[in-house]
């Protein structure tokens, strides 16, 4: 059942190309236009949406941040992302123009379920991005977009995360199509690039020896920092969460731009810092800014491990180690840059002899508030 792998987590990391591929499958018609019939919401209603609120917890909330960046970029609809348990208890502003998108692997997370129920009571339309057929959250939502990652057994989420991001892209492209915010040719190009992602994930999996070696050499680490900017920010957060959950190491992810507002005080000799680079093609020249963050932490003694796009020459001169991922368009990068960080956490936890499928104190689905 583990498909020849030692742990479910390792298997599920290797399932990721398939998870992304299956989530993309059957979502277009003969002309190449997106059709999300299973949504069960009248497309006309979706064109009335003036605000989106994404609700989720943990890893699923990081997928939500990716969703925000992509949907705002493509659709020009404001998107807020909020942890379900915070949203529910703060008197949030919701009206008929609000679409609440919940993201949950299990579909049973109580915090998210309560938040969705609350949003419905307040008159919002609710859409569930979910990996578990027939679970409670999609059943109670007006619409559902299933991720097709297959059952995820390991407590730490991996393939569901990439499938959630994929589904969020589909939703964003669909809204852009309905609202005519992108030309059909642009949508087709993005879908074509998405279609190449599974092969690119395979390349990362096949070339992961460097990251595994680094992980094995770091079994004594007591703290690891992760920084990223823009779409690299949620990836950094996810890298830190995986390390906490699996290896019980203090790990913190933060937005690279925050560095000088506090976290840089943590840097001293030998502090390991992972940096998720933005694409060198990013339209805001964030690349240069993150390169200077690398220089800043290195100057204070940090060890820098950088996840960057293949061919990113500029970063090579500044980082101790670079883990390369294949090229894709900037907005799709999280589907690739996440993978080395998952492998790092898995390998480090395994080197410490921990049970990666069942980390201490955690449950796969959190069914109490
Ligand atoms: O089933 P859900 O996606 O609603 O679960 C949300 C979180 O509990 C979950 O992502 C958790 O953070 C994982 N252990 C992360 O690896």
UniProtKB/TrEMBL annotation:
GO molecular function: carbohydrate derivative binding; glutamine-fructose-6-phosphate transaminase (isomerizing) activity
Catalysed reaction equations from the record: D-fructose 6-phosphate + L-glutamine = D-glucosamine 6-phosphate + L-glutamate
GO biological process, one term: carbohydrate metabolic process
Keyword Iron-sulfur: no
Main location, first listed in the record: cytoplasm
Keyword Repeat: yes
Localisation per UniProt entry: Cytoplasm
Catalytic center residues: 364
EC number(s) on file: 2.6.1.16
GO terms for cellular component: cytosol
Key words of the record: Aminotransferase, Cytoplasm, Glutamine amidotransferase, Repeat, Transferase
Role noted for this protein: Catalyzes the first step in hexosamine metabolism, converting fructose-6P into glucosamine-6P using glutamine as a nitrogen source.
Subunit architecture: Homodimer.
Protein name as it appears in the record: Glutamine--fructose-6-phosphate aminotransferase [isomerizing]
Species of provenance: Micrococcus flavus
Annotated gene: glmS
First and last residues shown, out of full length: 255 to 623 of 623
């Amino acid at each position: 059942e583990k498909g020849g792998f030692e742990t479910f987590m390792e298997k599920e990391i290797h399932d990721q190309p398939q998870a992304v591929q299956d989530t993309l499958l059957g979502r277009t018609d003969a002309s190449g236009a997106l059709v999300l019939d299973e949504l069960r919401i009248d497309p006309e209603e979706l064109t009335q949406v003036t605000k989106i609120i994404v609700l989720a917890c943990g890893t699923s909330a990081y997928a939500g941040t990716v969703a925000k960046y992509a949907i705002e970029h493509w659709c020009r609809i404001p998107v807020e992302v909020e942890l379900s348990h915070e949203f529910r208890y703060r008197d949030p502003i919701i009206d008929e123009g609000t679409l609440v998108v919940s993201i949950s692997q299990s579909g049973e997370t109580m915090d998210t379920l309560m938040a969705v129920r609350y949003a419905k009571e307040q008159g919002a339309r609710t859409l569930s991005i979910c990996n578990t057929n027939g679970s409670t959250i999609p059943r109670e939502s007006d619409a559902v977009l299933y991720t097709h990652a297959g059952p995820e057994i390991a407590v730490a989420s991996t393939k569901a995360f990439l499938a959630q991001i994929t589904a969020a892209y589909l939703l964003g492209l669909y809204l852009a199509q309905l609202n005519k915010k992108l030309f059909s040719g642009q949508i087709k190009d993005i879908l074509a690039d998405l279609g190449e992602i599974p092969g690119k994930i395979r390349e990362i999996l096949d070339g992961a020896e460097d990251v595994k070696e680094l992980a094995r050499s770091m079994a004594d680490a007591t703290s690891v920092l992760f920084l990223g900017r823009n779409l690299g920010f949620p990836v950094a957060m996810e890298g830190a969460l995986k390390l906490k959950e699996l290896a019980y190491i203090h790990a913190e992810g933060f937005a690279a731009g925050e560095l000088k507002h506090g976290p840089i005080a943590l840097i001293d000799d030998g502090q390991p810092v992972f940096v998720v680079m933005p694409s060198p093609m990013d339209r805001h020249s964030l690349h240069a800014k993150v390169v200077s963050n690398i220089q800043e932490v290195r100057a204070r003694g940090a060890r820098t491990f950088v996840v960057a796009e293949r061919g990113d020459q500029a970063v090579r001169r500044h980082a101790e180690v670079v883990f390369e991922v294949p090229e894709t368009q900037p907005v799709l990068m999280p589907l690739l840059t996440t993978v080395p960080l998952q492998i790092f956490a898995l390998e480090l936890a395994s080197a410490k002899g921990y049970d990666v499928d069942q980390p201490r104190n955690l449950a796969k689905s959190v069914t109490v508030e």
